Structure to design on (796 residues):
């Protein structure tokens, strides 16, 4: 069997990971000592000399190096810097324009600032804004929920190209900031493409059919003929079919979403490694925490901007239809938001593009340079055939894989729980959709604070592998214990809906409620009304605090508009035959009232039944304590994000880090982001007790069993959290065992940094700690099948 480890190692760059640590290119050159190869002078300190620029060579014909060759080693092959857009190492600029004013921002801290702004904007689009536009897609293009879900999931499918982005963007000759900028511009292009279907299909809402929701009695129906079985009701069915315009919308939506997903892959994978390389080692956790906190704040920004654009009609330049923004038929100006984010991302990527492939090294400001001096960036001489073996090497790293399993469980909770959190709050505590979104939005700042606190904690402790694992394990266990507290408030009781959770009449002996619930919306009081079970328009009898599926199922014959400029759909209903306090004698007047009503001069109501639009309000008091406990859980759970990231970066070799992050991105998508909404949705659907009927098939769920929803929804999250806790404990035991074993049994990288005589103090102790961390990371990486023994790569 071929020894692929040598192929992989031979593909490592001939350029140092930092611009002042040049490495010999190949064995064709004259032999050199290890110190010469690593750029170490006789005094034991690295030679701070830049690598040879592209196109310049040192040869016998040109014994004196040119101006561009100064500082290059003899015999060193020129390094191809064509991917750097002619920017000098450590200099900011655009192609050949490198003004002096831009050099003030040529530092890791400014890169963190600009990358954070870009990440904030991208997260706002991909997580918050797209999620808020799902209903608009369905209404304007008449998509089914399944088709809409597929369109949205194309974003996650597009992100799978991260394996290529991180592989090629992480090579030595690649300019990571420019990869990030070009990817962002591709994302902006995809966002613009998504808007194109709007100009192909203009939204035309249905007319105001409030009269169709009323009771229109036909011939009398014997009570024995009443069908009490909800599943057997077959309303008139008019299935929609795709028109040419609607089908053509997919031609733009699918590639647009794929491009948005693909363009979002470089920002954090390449940006995180760039920051870790060019900021002080002690500052790396807090800097990365700032960047990653934008992925938590960004969704809040997206939902906020989404709510703003949804308040404006999709064709705002035309006369508004007679519906309010709270109507289920309202479609907001979703396409304007995609244009807004496309422009914002386009602008935010401009300063990132200016950064060079390499910043000036911070060795003069930080003594912890030995961690960088021995490293070569991976896969500069890259080929696709080596990718599977690089993947296999990482998959056999036990700590790396356990971190990924824990992260997949955590992000499954984040994706699944947060995606359905507004639905859970709205159903469980009976609050309006706008309030449910506001409550869910409060979770996002708490998550951001937790991420930042995790970085601060790491900033104050040792940032080696063992220190990161300690913080990760402690925060994960504490968060796991807190998950048990959110079960304490318990579920709210189901709200009363006639025919679903409560009978139409208190003394109705025909109604019973087995498990599952027996849904029987048809009752003697509304059997003659000819109600359509697909038209869900709930009304409330405030006196009894009982809701009804629609005014028709409440037996209401007359409505009077109570609409205002803010609410065009508010009505009060009268002459409702299913209200308990309704006078039976009025039933004989009902036919005459309706027959004499020509629609223009409605007959005045003869009985006031106190029935109004919307569901009855809930009297559950458990929202506040539940929200307080949930905020605490979110805060503590977010603390572990930065320690987990630092653990991943410290458990692999430095040259493997860009690719390791890219592979983790794919793992999280395949086992976290993509599937979790599916099985979270399946668990939630299992608690539904009232389905909307669409041509004989189940549509949306209209009412859930609160008890089942509460315990199954939170129970699934707790189960996933348990997986994360188990992985954190196993990681702690494994790394602790290796840490105590020390270097005696560890294969270590060849020494690339020697402390000169008389060197002592903080620098010396940090160097010892850093070398020990190198040995620990190398021992873990040895499980991947490639070891470095006496400086030579060998297959294990």
């Amino acid at each position: 069997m071929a020894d692929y480890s040598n192929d992989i190692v031979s593909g490592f760059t001939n350029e140092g990971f930092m611009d002042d640590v040049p490495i010999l290119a190949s064995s064709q050159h004259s032999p050199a000592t290890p110190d010469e190869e690593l750029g170490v002078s006789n005094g034991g300190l690295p030679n701070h000399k830049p690598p040879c620029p592209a196109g310049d060579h040192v040869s016998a014909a040109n014994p004196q190096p040119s101006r561009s060759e100064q500082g290059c080693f003899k015999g060193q092959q020129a390094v191809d810097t064509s991917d750097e857009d002619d920017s000098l190492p450590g200099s900011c600029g655009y192609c050949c324009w490198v003004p002096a004013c831009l050099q003030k921002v040529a530092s890791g801290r400014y890169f963190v600032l600009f990358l954070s702004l870009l990440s904030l904007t991208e997260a706002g689009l991909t997580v918050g804004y797209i999620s808020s536009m799902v209903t608009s897609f369905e209404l304007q293009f008449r998509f089914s929920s399944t088709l809409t879900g597929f369109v949205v999931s194309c974003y996650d499918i597009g992100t799978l190209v991260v394996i290529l982005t991180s592989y090629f963007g992480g090579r030595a000759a690649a300019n990571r900031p420019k990869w990030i900028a070009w990817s962002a511009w591709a994302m902006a292009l995809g966002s613009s493409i998504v808007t194109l279907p709007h100009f192909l299909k203009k939204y035309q809402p249905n007319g105001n059919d409030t009269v169709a929701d009323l009771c229109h009695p036909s011939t009398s129906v014997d009570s024995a003929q009443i069908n009490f079985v909800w599943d057997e009701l077959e309303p008139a069915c008019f299935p929609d079919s795709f028109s040419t315009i609607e089908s053509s919308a997919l031609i733009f939506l699918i590639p647009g979403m794929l491009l948005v997903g693909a363009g979002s892959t470089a920002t954090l994978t390449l940006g995180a490694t760039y920051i870790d390389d060019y900021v002080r080692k002690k500052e790396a956790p807090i800097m990365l925490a700032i960047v990653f906190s934008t992925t938590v704040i960004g969704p809040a920004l997206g939902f906020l901007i989404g709510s703003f654009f949804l308040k404006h009609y999709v064709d705002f330049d035309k006369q508004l239809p007679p519906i309010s923004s709270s109507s289920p038929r309202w479609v907001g100006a979703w396409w304007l938001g995609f244009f807004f984010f496309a422009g914002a991302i386009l602008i935010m990527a401009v300063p990132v593009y200016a950064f060079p492939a390499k910043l000036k090294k911070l060795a003069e400001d930080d003594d912890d340079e030995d961690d960088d001096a021995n490293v070569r960036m991976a896969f500069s001489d890259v080929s696709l055939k080596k990718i599977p073996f690089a993947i296999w090497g990482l998959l056999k790293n036990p700590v790396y894989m356990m971190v990924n399993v824990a992260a997949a469980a955590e992000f499954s909770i984040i994706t699944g729980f947060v995606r359905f959190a507004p639905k859970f709050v709205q159903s469980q505590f009976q609050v309006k959709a706008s309030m449910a979104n506001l409550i869910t939005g409060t979770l996002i700042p708490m998550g951001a604070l937790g991420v930042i606190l995790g970085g601060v904690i790491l900033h104050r402790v040792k940032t080696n592998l063992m220190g990161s694992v300690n913080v990760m394990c402690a925060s994960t266990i504490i968060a796991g214990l807190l998950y048990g507290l959110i079960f304490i408030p318990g579920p709210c009781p189901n709200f009363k809906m006639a025919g679903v959770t409560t009978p139409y009449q208190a003394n109705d002996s025909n109604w019973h409620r087995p498990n599952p619930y027996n849904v029987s919306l048809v009752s003697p009081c509304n059997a003659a009304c000819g109600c359509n079970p697909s038209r869900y328009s709930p009304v409330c009898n405030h006196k009894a605090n009982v809701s009804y599926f629609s005014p028709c199922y409440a037996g209401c014959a007359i409505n009077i508009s109570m609409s205002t400029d803010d609410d065009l759909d508010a009505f009060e209903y009268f002459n409702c035959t299913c209200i308990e306090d309704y006078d039976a004698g009025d039933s004989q007047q009902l036919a005459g009232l309706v027959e004499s009503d020509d629609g223009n001069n409605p007959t005045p109501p003869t009985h006031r039944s106190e029935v109004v639009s919307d569901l009855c309000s809930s009297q559950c008091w458990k929202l506040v304590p539940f929200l307080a406990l949930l905020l605490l859980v979110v805060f503590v759970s977010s603390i572990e994000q930065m320690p987990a990231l630092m653990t991943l970066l410290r458990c692999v070799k430095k040259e493997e880090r860009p690719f390791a992050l890219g592979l983790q991105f794919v793992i999280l998508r395949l086992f976290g982001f993509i599937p979790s909404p599916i099985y979270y949705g399946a668990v939630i659907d299992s608690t539904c007790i009232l389905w909307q009927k669409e041509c004989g098939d189940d549509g949306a769920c209209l009412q859930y069993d609160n008890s089942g929803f509460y315990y199954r929804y939170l129970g699934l999250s707790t189960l996933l959290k348990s997986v994360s806790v188990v992985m954190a404990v196993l990681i702690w035991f494994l790394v602790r065992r290796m840490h105590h074993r020390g270097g005696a049994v560890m294969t270590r990288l060849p020494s690339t940094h020697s402390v000169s005589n008389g060197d002592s103090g903080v620098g010396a102790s940090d160097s010892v700690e850093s070398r020990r961390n190198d040995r620990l990371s190398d021992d873990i990486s040895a499980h991947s099948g490639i070891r470095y023994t006496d400086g030579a790569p060998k297959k294990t």
